[in-house]
Amino acid sequence: MDIFLQQLVNGIVLGSIYALVALGYTMVYGILGLINFAHGEVVMIGAMVALTVIQLLIGSGIALPGPLIAALGLLIAMPVCMALGYVIERVAYRPLRAAPRLAALITAIGVSILLQNLAMIVWGRQYHAFPALLPAAPHTFAGATVDDLQIFIVLLAAAIMAGLLALVHRTRLGRAMRATSQNPAVAGLMGVNVNTVISITFVIGSALAAVAGIMVAAYYGIAHYFMGFTLGLKAFTAAVLGGIGNLAGAMLGGLLLGVIESLGAGYIGPLTGGFLGSHYQDVFAFVVLILVLVFRPSGLLGERVAERS
Amino acid sequence: MIRKPLVLASCALAAAFMLAGCGKGAPQAGAAVVVRIGQVSPLTGPQAHLGKDNDNGARLAIEELNAKGVTIGGAKVKFELVSEDDQADPKTGTIVAQKLVDARVAGVIGHLNSGTTIPASRIYHDAGIPQISPSATNPKYTHQGYQGAFRVMANDVQQGKVLGEYAVAKLGAKKIAIIDDRTAYGQGLADEFEKAAKATGAAIVAREYTTDRATDFRSILTNVKAKQPDLLFYGGMDAQAGPMVAQMKTLAVKARFLAGDGTQSLEFIKLAGAAADGVVASSPGVPLDKMPGGRGFTERFTAKYGQIQIYAPYAYDAVMTLVNAMQKANSAQPAKYLPELAKISYQGVTGPIAFDEKGDLRSGPITLYVVKGGKWDTLETVGGGAAAQK
Description:
- Chain A is mostly helical and 309 residues long.
- Chain A has helices at residues 2-32, 39-59, 66-93, 101-123, 148-170, 172-182, 184-189, 194-220, 227-242, 247-271, 281-295; strands at residues 128-129, 138-141, 144-147, 222-223.
- Chain A has a single domain (2-295), classed as Orthogonal Bundle (ABC transporter involved in vitamin B12 uptake, BtuC).
- The longest helix of chain A has 31 residues, at 2-32.
- Chain A is globular.
- Chain B has two domains: 32-154 and 290-353, Response regulator (Rossmann fold, 3-Layer(aba) Sandwich), CATH 3.40.50; 157-284 and 366-382, 3-Layer(aba) Sandwich (Rossmann fold), CATH 3.40.50.2300.
- Chain B contains twelve helices and 15 strands.
- In chain B, the strands form three sheets. A seven-stranded mixed beta sheet of chain B has the order 8-7-9-10-11-14-15, with helices on both faces. In chain B, strands 2-3-1-4-5-6 form a six-stranded mixed beta sheet, sandwiched between helices. A two-stranded antiparallel sheet of chain B has the order 12-13.
- In chain B, strand 7 (175-180), helix 6 and strand 8 form a beta-alpha-beta unit.
- In chain B, helix 8 (238-250) runs parallel beside helix 9.
- Chain B starts with a helix and ends in an 8-residue tail after the last strand.
- Classes of the chains: A mainly alpha (309), B alpha/beta (390).
- The interface between A and B is large, with 39 and 39 residues.
């Protein structure tokens, strides 16, 4: 039982991170109908920028408390990622907005490869150790071990998601975003500046990516130039699982996927009598993706929407 | 007007090359024969730091040889390193192996991983090109019956045995959990370790798996923790072992961590941070400061490329051994120098290099290290006289 509980805890922490990244995919898809495959790389850039800032701060010899250093890293990584998100949209996607969807999709993959290689040139090819800045003292509840960092990740992710939901459903900007998502042309006629709304969507998604990037790096204690790739694919799966374009769906999908992966990796060995081992951990996400696409293409919370031309 | 001298020079070079290639050429003034030596290791990905380490080790050897000037068969020779990236991926490994064969390299140093070395060795064998791996330790590599496959490091049969016995006899482990990364190296070493540990009387309570690209080990560590082992053995590389040790600490897994040569690097300590203390790992060969040419090599290497990860001295020796065989055979042609390579006796920086009939190193000592205060401390060296055979 305590194994189950521990795996559940592992899954929820992982799931919160997936959910944050999935929100970035789903927001962009909701408004543009574009799958922004470069989003995973924005997560990576967030982690790497924060790492550089943190290393500089530690190397400067000024004795700052760990959480403050982490917060400063986040404060610098977020605007960098926001600017990056804006530039990606402005340079790579806006000129193609009227083009067939495939063109934009291929551009997204191109941007992803470009960012990955740029990061490789800037930060090198090796794994970087991400310093442990928050106290990682483990607490034990009912047989499951939870550390401060895990609690912090889940709480921060929950707060950000609540804030985002409030933004989209309660503010003028949120209304403009929802209107653009329903019909950009009509929204434009009603006085919504569609370009600004789309830019803001990218900027917000990238800020979330920066937070997620730092979380991942701190959680595993490492950062490297291709960390965004698999993470991005899994978050995309989470978004599809929840119903792409649906904010609550992305959160639910992220959490579910994290738990499925964690429990799957924990129990696949005993359940198959050792035939399949825990190294198939990454397979679960993609099995889920295929199952969802076959049996419920609109996702758990997604509505069946008519294809927008 | 500008082109003409260039054309002339390349004609001269080509002529010199052709003459030397036929084996009857007299040394041409000024024009050296180019001999290409291939080097393959992962230059991108999680093991890029180790791959670059091998690459630098081989490069240092090539540069020193060129600076000194080597004559083979009466002709002055200029060595050229052709370095390829196999991404630690077996599929890519075979592709770049074919690329090296097509580039007509005279010999190959590599690959780094057993998982890439074994499939690639077939391609080199078919092309008749000798290959010395500085770091592939899986026994299968030299046990395929290929005459041109050599290694300058003890294999995993011996290393697994030393580790298994050490875990039980010296670390007092009774309940052991094993994790491997499912690569030829990790799985092979874990299997050999398991055999030795069982034979010495320990019980294996858990066997879990991960991959050589993974970063999340919490699920498998949770399973391991439930079995309450007093020792956890990992068969794999430092890029996984580092985060794994750190995650063990946050999950409050109390087991001692033991691993093989893939983990015995500086990078491991960096990645594991404070959790690295007390980790024991083995590495074939003797400690760098006990190597016959260890001190001089360290000085020359660090002046050019910075810190040594693990295998750089072995890559350096691999190049030197290859060239030594060429000099003895008076030819850089694989078919001519291969017999000399098989019966070579060369004093390298890592120790004496001589191969048995399979291509394994004749004397293969294994050294155990422990992390103390963020540094690898030597525990003891085991073996050295006996060949790593099975």
